[in-house]
Amino acid sequence: MKLLFHDYGSSDDFPDIPDTTFTEAHVLENFLTQQSTRSMMGELECENGFKIDIAIDENLGMVQYFSIEGDPPYFMAVSPTKLVEGSHDFLISGEPSEIQGRFCLSLEVFKKVVMDFFQSGSRSDAVQWEET
Question: Hey, where are the domains in the chain?
Answer without folding.
Answer: 3-131
